[in-house]
Design goal:
The chain has a domain of 82 residues. The chain is 51% helix and 9% strand. It has 20 helices and ten strands. InterPro entries: NAD(P)-bd_dom_sf, SDR_fam.
Length: 522
């Protein structure tokens, strides 16, 4: 094929009697694409010859569709070939955009689609780029069966970590068994286990944590990730646990305080060269919390529950508070519990750093707080729907909006992955970093770093745990006593029924014997 000449394709070999030719500048393009796809047959290649007066576009559909053209070489369907990307692009270049079907509606839609894509990318948040070898590392996770916690579990398991799930479900529960099996199969990691721990029960937490630390040598523990969370809708009712603690305060804060207070020796006992991390799942709602009822007047839990004054109780502060404490209600319960959790996390880092290791090495446990942002989780859905059916219906109607504005649980887990695998957190002896959008951010409430407020909250929490456990023990004793009495009553009823059955049999035998005696005398 020489440059500058005209080439002819045999009309009988190509196109049902239509004579078409190619210009020299285009023949290389056709031969190139045809040779890539194998679409140029031997007959087509051999039919190219010098000629004039041609329309090269008529051969393009045939060349693109030639592999499926039968041996009779019938003309291709023009309605089908019009949708071919190459044909449409070439037509647009030579004949203008009007030659491309639906081009103007498409061009008008593209800016809107681009805007939606940019908005979705923005609201999805930042992605973690830090990676770390997680094989062999033991990670304890609360709240790991749904929402962001589930995404964290799957992500770390995929990286080879050994996961210990703390869950309220019995170990034989079908849901838990199926969930663990699913994670194992998806991640090809069989080091996924579970321990039954009801975070709504301080007794259950103590039972598990005491069993965990009661081991020699100390068990390996590289990381604790606290994702458990609950939210009471603003129109909901205040709920309490069986030990008399408000549910948000218990699950979001006090359970974590109690668990880490007992597991603290296990963290301090880890080898000095081991990178140990405790990651708290926090929320921006902590900025709306209020701990003035603790930090200003510093009441004990017992003084709140009883009106009787004890001589050992510290006197209440006579100073007028700068701002009255907010009444604890469903509307602010979640925010207050998250504020307490954030304050405790920073205090726990100081507590670990103050410990003097026997080997003289510095503290190797780092505390981090990870804020996943607003995600499409069961807790967020419950909060947005106000816990009502009408709210749920509205949520479903507006779901495209929520899909756009709220992160997926997987994207919410990115800050947790950064906290778990960020290499910069291994350096030095610091800690207490708050992470949001895969970046370290300073706390927006200065009182969370106040040592006096931290000390008052710690003392208040210890007293609350002690009193709640005492109430829980009384409840358990009462339940056990009632169960024992019920069992004794059931045993007495059963013995009475057995006795009546035996007496009935004896009387029946006597009556039968007397009838036989009467018949013999007769």
């Amino acid at each position: 094929m020489g440059g500058g000449g005209w080439y002819e394709l045999d009309p009988l070999a190509l196109y049902a009697g239509a004579k078409v030719t190619l210009v020299a500048e285009w023949d290389l393009i056709f031969v190139f694409f045809g040779s890539l796809s194998g679409s140029l047959s031997h007959e087509v290649k051999s039919a190219i010859s010098v000629q004039s007066n041609f329309d090269w576009r008529t051969v393009l559909p045939y060349l693109a569709y030639q592999p499926s053209v039968p041996s009779s070489l019938s003309a291709p369907d023009t309605t089908t070939t019009a949708a071919m990307p190459v044909y449409m692009a070439v037509s647009g270049l030579l004949d203008g955009l009007d030659s491309i079907p639906f081009i103007w509606p498409i061009l008008k839609t593209l800016p809107a689609l681009a805007l939606l894509y940019l908005l979705k990318t923005f609201f999805s948040g930042a992605s973690n780029t830090s990676e770390r070898n997680m094989h062999g590392k033991v990670v304890m996770v609360t709240g790991g069966t749904s929402g962001v916690g589930e995404a964290v579990v799957r992500g770390l398991a995929q990286r080879g970590a050994q996961i210990v799930l703390l869950t309220q479900h019995p170990l034989g529960d079908p849901f838990l068994v199926e969930y663990i099996e699913d994670v194992r199969n998806e991640t090809d990691n069989h080091l996924i286990t579970a321990e039954q721990v009801d975070l709504a029960s301080l007794h259950s937490i103590r039972t598990f944590a005491t069993k965990w630390i009661d081991n020699a040598p100390p068990r390996r523990l590289d990381m604790i990730i606290l994702c458990a969370n609950t939210t009471t809708p603003s129109k909901g009712k205040v709920e309490s646990t069986s030990e008399g603690v408000e549910l948000n305060w218990q699950l979001n804060y006090l359970a974590n305080f109690h668990l880490l207070s007992i597991l603290s020796p296990a963290l301090r006992a880890q080898p000095p060269d081991r990178d140990v991390r405790v990651i708290f799942g926090t929320c921006s709602s902590y900025m709306g919390g209020d701990l003035l009822h603790i930090t200003q007047s510093s009441p004990t839990p017992s003084s709140q529950q009883s009106s009787k004054k004890s001589p050992q109780s510290p006197p209440k502060s006579t100073a007028t508070p700068k701002q009255p404490p907010t009444k604890f209600s469903p509307a602010n319960a979640h925010a207050t519990s998250k504020l307490a959790l954030t304050t405790f996390a920073l205090a726990f880092q100081k507590h670990l750093a103050a410990y003097k290791r026997p080997d003289g090495m510095p503290n190797n446990t780092k505390v981090l707080l990870a804020d996943p942002g607003l995600c499409r989780t069961p807790g967020t859905r419950r909060w947005l729907t106000w816990g009502s059916l009408s709210g749920l219906a509205l949520y479903l109607l507006l779901y495209p909006l929520w899909w756009m504005l709220l992160k997926s649980p997987a994207m919410g887990a990115e800050s947790f992955f950064y906290a778990a695998m960020g290499e910069e957190f291994t350096k030095g002896t610091g800690g207490g970093w708050m992470i949001k959008e895969v970046q370290v951010r300073p706390p927006l409430r200065k009182e969370v770093e106040d040592e006096e407020a931290q000390g008052k909250l710690w003392k208040y929490s210890e007293e609350m745990v002690e009193e709640a456990e005492r109430r829980g023990k009384e409840v358990r004793s009462k339940v056990q006593r009632e169960e024992k009495e019920s069992k004794e009553e059931a045993d007495a009823v059963r013995e009475m029924e057995d006795y009546k059955a035996k007496v009935g049999k004896k009387e029946g035998k006597k009556m039968e014997g007397s009838r036989r005696g009467k018949k013999g005398n007769a």
